[in-house]
Amino acid sequence: MTAVARPEPRSARRLSRGERREQLVAAALPVVARQGLGGFSLDAIAARAEVTRNLLYHYFPRGRADIVLAVAERAGGQLTRGWVTDEFQPLSGRLSANFARIMDHALAPTHAWRIHRMARAALDPELDQVVERFVDVVISSIALNHLGTPDPPPLVRLALDGFVAFTETVLEQARSQALPRAQVATLLTQTLTATIDAALSAT
């Protein structure tokens, strides 16, 4: 009986530098979210990504510091991606969709939410820049929805910055106290409207 030759298994495609870095950041996200910005294990990240610890330093030369910045960037992107600003949708629908998205992150909480909250509290200048950039995305999106421009007046921007911080605190408390989601959404919607009205009247 003649043996049938089996095809040689294909070797896995080698990842590009960008793809490899994305893989490493994805592996780092849950580790940092669970273990904290300062105490996470490089070995745990390497094991999740199935690479050596030395390879981490190849992509993140400063080790933990560069990994923290990378996961903070990833977290900010996940939290702000898909913000609804379609002017053809009713404002109430846009508000509902946007609050639903951020509440999904906060009430779970997702890895992105945990890392964002830790970055907020870190008091690190580099992390502050990352956080501020994504907070600005939220502020610009809110302003676009309510004022028709992504660039609100300075006093409105200041008020919205405070509203974003307020929202994060409310959602943290809502999760810890298991408050009804619908009531929390109503509170945030009413507070946002009042915040914008107050800021506009003061300009």
Topology (elements, then pairings):
Layout: H1 17-35, H2 42-49, H3 53-59, H4 64-80, H5 91-107, H6 111-121, H7 125-147, H8 154-177, H9 181-202
Helix pairs in contact: 1-2, 1-4, 1-6, 4-6, 4-7, 5-9, 7-8, 8-9
Features:
single chain; 203 residues; mainly alpha; Arc Repressor Mutant, subunit A; 2 domains; 9 helices; 73% helix; elongated
Account of the 3D structure:
This protein is mostly helical. The protein has 2 domains: 51 residues, Arc Repressor Mutant, subunit A (Orthogonal Bundle); 128 residues. It is built from 9 helices and no strands. It is elongated and about 55 Å long. The N and C termini lie far apart (91 Å). 28% of the residues are buried.
Helix content: over 70%
- How far apart the termini lie comes to 91 Å
**What is the general shape?**
elongated
Structural class assignment: mainly alpha
Low-confidence stretches: 1-5, 7-12
- What is the alpha-carbon Rg in Å? 21 Å
Bin the strand percentage: under 5%
Secondary-structure element order, N to C: HHHHHHHHH
Let me know the number of strands. Answer: 0
**Main beta-sheet strand count, sense and barrel state:** none
Mean pLDDT over all positions: 93
Number of DSSP helical runs: 9
Total count of domains: 2
